[in-house]
Specification:
Layout (H helix, E strand, L loop, with lengths): L12 H11 L5 H15 L10
Length: about 55
């Protein structure tokens, strides 16, 4: 099956500076708690290869 690979976008100028600033933003305590909650919920749904159903 053929795979189509999209070109990597090139960002320059002020847009590139905005992207760099956004990368510095750290997650809030609330978003970290939400991530942990989702990890716990979805980890129960995933069946590992070693686990029996």
């Amino acid at each position: 099956m053929p795979t189509q690979i999209a070109a990597t976008p090139l960002i320059t100028g002020e847009e590139a500076l905005r992207v760099l600033e956004e990368m510095k933003i750290m997650p809030t305590e609330r978003s970290l708690r939400a991530r942990k909650m989702l990890e716990e919920k979805f980890s129960k749904m995933v069946v590992e290869e070693d686990d029996e159903v």
